[in-house]
Each structure stands twice: as C-alpha cells, then as structure tokens.
Amino acid sequence: MSLLDAERQQLDAFMPGLDAALAAHPLDQLESPSGPGIKLFREAGGPALVVPAGNAGRGATPLQAVRVQRAIGARSPSLAAATAMHHFSVAGLVAAAAHGSGLEWMLLEAIAGDGLLLASGFSEGRTGQSILRPAVSAGLRDGRVVLNGSKKPCSLARSMDLLTVSLVLPGPDGVGRLAVGIVPAGTEGVSVRPFWGNPVLAGAESDEVVLADVVLDERMVVRTDVTADSVLDPLNVAGFLWFELLITAGYLGAAGALVERVVAKGGVPAAERAAMVTELGAATLALEAVAGAMTDGEHGERLLVDALVARYAAQDAIARTTRTALDALGGMAFITSGDGTYLASAANALAFHPPSRGRMAESLCAALDGAPLRIT
Q: Which domain of life, per UniProt (predicted)?
C-alpha cells in the first residue's frame, strides 16, 4: 500500500484512467504551459465531478472531491490548482440554483454533458485588497450589464469555455451588492494576455483575462444579498468552503507526492519517515473533517472558520514536511532530478491563495469571540 492509494482509487472511481494517463507523462511536461493535463482531465469527464447526478454530473460529495483533488495534485499540482477553480465555480452555480431563475440548471447540464470548463474571475492577486471587492466594473445599459476590467491571474484562461466573474450591482434600495456574471469565452470583448511568469504552476494557464465593454444579458447574472461590508451570506459561505477545501487538497497532494518518494527511498530512518507521514496525515484529516461535515449538510460560518483553520494548519504542515523531505532525499536526488524541488515549491504556493492568514487573523479571532465572520 502506498501513501496515496485511497486517493488514487477515488480518482479512478470518478475519472477512470486519468491517474494512469497523468502518470505516463513526466512531471515537467505536465507542469508546462502546453502540457496535456487539462485535455486529459476534460476527456476523463472531470468537468462534471461536482455537478449533481440529477444534472447528468458525477455528483461527488465534498469529501470525495477533496480526495480526488489530492490524487490529482500528487500527479500535477498545476492541474489541481486549475481544476479547483473550475469545481469551485461549479459548486457556486449549484448553490445559486436553489435561489436562481433556472438558468443555473441548464448551465450545469451543459457543463456535464459537453465537458465545459469554468474559469473563476473572482478577485485575488492584488495585495492588501479584500477578495470580495471585484476587479471588474459593471454598469447597466439598456437592460444589460456591461463589464470592463481584467482578472489576473486567472487559471484556465486559455482553455475556459465560461468565465464566472464577481460584480457589484445596485440592489432594490440602491446599495451595491455582489453578483456573479457568467461570460462565454467567445463573447465579443473577451481576450487573454500573457501574465504568469513563473515556471512553477505554469500548467494552470493562469494568465490575464481582459473584458472590454463586454455586454452580458441580465439572465447571465446571479445576484446575492452581500454588501460591501464583507459580511457573508449563505451562498458566499458555501463558495468559500468549497474553495478552501479544494485548493488546500491539491497542495496537500503535491506535498504527499514528495513524502511518498521519501517513504519509498531506502536509508531514511523510520522515525523521520513516520514523522512526515504523521504531520501531513494530521493536516489531511483536519481538512477531511470539514469536508465530511459539509457532506453531512453543514454549511455555516462556524464551519468556514474551521475550514480556514484547517487550511492554515495545512500550510504549516506543508512547509515543514517539504523541507524535511528534501533533506531526507539528499543531494543526489537534487542533482539528478528537479521533481523534488518542484513539488516542494508548488505545494508551498498554498500560502499565496486568498484569504491570506495575516489579513484574516483579526477576523478569525473576532469570529471566535462571537462576531460575524468577515473575509478581508
């Protein structure tokens, strides 16, 4: 039995053959901007993973999706990062469908049936700014929404079929409220520019998506009740829960792949190997506890607090275990292959995803003292 057997079995159950197809390619090929990972994912039916079975999807629960993402992250961290954004967007549509006009269900069936990929245009990548503050401006013109701005980085920028983008639109009382626009990739005014300059995670296609006077029918907009004070409504809580689970799982998978190499290597003291497995396993169990609670129907703010705690604990576990794993693999492994150092660098990128621990520290403490959780 290897360290990630259970995760790979879960991946095979939902996307038969994908693990073997990814394993057939060298890591540096999978992680390149033109790598085959996204194509293989689409061919294996990956876009349908969290689409409900009633909408022709695979119907994975949060716990199952977390295990799938760990398996993918162990093979290709770039693919895990990119597809986490897709699944997060799909899960948002599922949550919105309970309150929407019915268009969401049609989109979900198209995603599952046609293998459509969703990119996420939610705000991130701008130091010091709340991720609930959209990067794209929205105005109203003749009953339609007009979008201008850009999202960078935006994973799946070159393979996306649809872009989900956060917006602020006036509510019935004139107060600006967050909304989600769904933009087909071929819409006039949508373009992609090079942006990602780091070879680490280059396979995620995280370039800049530009929207210049993009006209969107109001029916392609899902409105929420969230105002600019960053207090979350149930729809946003569900979205953030999915995001934290999926993004953390992929990076835990990348760290697990590195530790897996150490476990298989001769000459490393058992105490060192066991310590790495124990620390990474504890972080995984914490994440799975949150995913299990979601699977059982919990979606409240307190669970999101737990998800953030699990995510930040995973960051610490990844930092320690990857450093120890590289030491254990030794200088010859460093000299003869770049895989180990790549996996360590990729896994530690979890710290760069929003919301950052530093910005959330005060909000987390306040929430644990009874205040509403605010995402900053």
A: Bacteria
Side-chain half-sphere exposure of 309, counting CA atoms within 13 A: 16
Q: Which CATH number goes with the domain that contains 289?
A: 1.20.140.10
Q: Which residues contact 123 (CB under 8 A, 6 or more apart)?
A: 129, 130, 131, 132, 133, 134, 135, 151, 166, 354
Beta bridge partners of 178: 168
Alpha-carbon distances of 125 from 131, 196, 311, rounded to whole Å = 9, 12, 18
Are residues 258 and 312 both part of a single domain? yes
pLDDT digits (tens, 9 = 90+) for 277-304: 999 999 999 999 999 999 999 989 999 9
Structural domains in the chain (count): 3
Please give the residue range of the domain that contains residue 208: 118-227
Q: Fill in the amino acid letter for 371.
A: A
Do 82 and 68 belong to one domain?
yes
Model pTM greater than 0.90? yes
Cβ atoms within 10 Å of 7's Cβ, excluding its own = 25
CATH of the domain at 135: 2.40.110.10
